[in-house]
Amino acid sequence: MPNPLISKAKITRFLSILHKNLINRSRIFWLGLSIAVVLIYGIESLKAAFETKYIIQDDARQHIFWMRRFLDTELFPKDLIADYFQSVAPWGYKTFYWLITSLGIDPIFLGKLLPIFLGLISTIYCFGVSLQILPIPAVGFFSSLILNQSLWMEDDLVSATPRAFFYPLFLAFLYYLLRGSLFPVLVAIALQAVFYPHTVLLSLTILTIRLFDYNQKRLKFTSIKLNYWLWLGGIITAGIILLPYKLTATEFGPIITTTAAKIQPIFNYADGKYGRAFFFHHNPLVFWLTGPRSGILFLGLFSPLAIASLLLPFLLRKEKFPLAKQVSDKVGILVQIFIASLGLFFLAHIFLFQLHFPNRYIYHSIRVMMAIAAGIALIIWLDSYLKQIISQLENGLTFPQKISIGCTTILLVILSIIPFSQDLTIDNQSYVKGKEIELYEYLLAQPKDTLIASISKESNNIPTFARRSTLVAQEYSLPYHVEYYSQFSQKAIDLIQAQYTSNPEEVNNFIQNYGVDFWLLDLTAYDSRYVADKEFIRQYNLADSIIYQLEQNLIPALSVTMESCSVLTSKRIALLPTSCIINELIKFTQNNP
Q1: What pLDDT, in 10s, does the model give residues 521-564?
Q2: What is the Cα–Cα distance from 194 to 177, expressed in whole angstroms?
Q3: Which residues contact 462 (CB under 8 A, 6 or more apart)?
Q4: CB 3.0 to 4.6 Å from 355: which of 206, 348, 430, 557, for a disulfide?
């Protein structure tokens, strides 16, 4: 029969060693663990990204597809959609992709590999920032663990779009700022400006806040000279890079005004339906709190352990947490991030759409702030908690204390493991699988200047998987630049009307005017329910008139060509060459004068 005293002694010794290692283990060990976390998430993400040939992250369909022009200049000729997304891409972002693709690497392939490298850089800087606040290596591990759990549970990092660069560049800025390194801070700001300009406003706001000290309930200018040089250098660096870009007129017109946006269905929620660019909501609680672009609390998914960040202000004030005394004054950067983010959130609401979405100024930065704060809070609490358990073991544990320790340990393990679940990682990374493989391969064999007309959901995938131009597609109907959306909307309206008109001449005119080569139709396109549910039709207020036409048995001219002209069909779609459509409509007109 085992001796309980020996068992208790072994447990006490184990906990003492655990506590010592938690506090004193070398930086290399904890940094290695942090990097291992990135690799675990990154490898799982890579498996999903390369599961099939025809798979891509959702937002990459907008921001990366056009970069295949770097490999083949004949792709997407005179393509409004490709031209637009190329024009709005930050200079550094597209230059970076251009440099890599100049080596012959496909940009879609690069976009799938890039997140793991961005994650590694973000992790290393997060580790470094945390240690400057509380110089215990385990803090860096927990902070980077929580950050990685949050990042890989969402699609921002894995998108490899400009916003994916926020995390390494913002964390680099914080790291060098806390070290007081002037030149690296300015380099970080310059990189922010050319990769994801929204980050610059946040960084400059933080530098502005650091010009002031709050002491004895009084606000005064700081006596730290370096803060003035950082602020001045940051302003000059950002101005040199961003002002020419801001002053240069874009070919796609100005940003839409708030007044104009409010009257467009695409920006609004109505009749239980969300517009493509949903922003406004009649319920102020939804608008200000949970709206995906307007709300302050719509922060996406966070690691459950990030909740520990809320405890940090209380832990720092309690004398029973000895480790709190080792927290550096640099912890104030967390408050500065919060104030800057909140201020820019409201500023973006005041200058709506001119500074992009208000949520973007709080969504990413608060995720970083909470991860760092949570890592610090957990180590402060664990230090005290382990000391308390060791003390209690020496004096003997009561039954309630055993229950408390057991429940707390189980809870910590569960909260640490849950974010590694595939249901909370890969499933939230918004990978899109192409299902119409025969369609993509057929179109790939067509001339590079082939143009497809379609309102089918499948049209979203054609530029990426088939490398051919589509006249319009729901994925690309972004209404923020007036001239782009005006041209896009006119094409979309003309296409929808041509698809449902009973007049063959209108169909022929549409084909001739736009030079369309193929028409892609959903097999259910002429069903009233299809029209009623089609968001792309609703956003142009055309659904009611089309449904009325179908209910009056006015046969759409294009529908009579589906059976005879289809060169490719599946369970969902049919592809029709426009040359055949024109010939069939001529026959139809002759037979039905």
Answers
A1: 999 999 999 999 998 998 898 999 999 999 988 899 999 999 99
A2: 19
A3: 439, 440, 443, 452, 454, 468, 469, 470, 473, 520
A4: 348
Which tokens go with 565?
A: 């002209």
Which residue numbers in the chain have pLDDT < 70?
Answer: 1-25, 216, 246-249, 271, 298-301, 390-428, 593
What are phi and psi for residue 473, nearest 5 degrees?
Answer: -165, 145
Q: Around Cβ 489, how many Cβ atoms within 10 Å?
A: 17
Alpha helix locations (H) across 279-359? 284-285, 312-315, 332-350
Return the residue matching tokens 């990374």: 429
Measured in degrees and rounded to the nearest 5, phi and psi for residue 219 equal -100, 125
Contact 43, 152 (CB under 8 A): no
- Over residues 147-171, the pLDDT tens digits come to 998 898 888 899 999 999 999 999 9
Structure letter (DSSP) for residue 587: H
Joined together, the tokens standing for residue 13 give 């010794």
| Placement of tokens 């089918």 in the chain | 456
* Both tokens assigned to 539: 């956003």
Give the span between the Cα atoms of 111 and 108, in whole angstroms. Answer: 5
How many angstroms separate the CA atoms of 162 and 38, rounded? Answer: 20
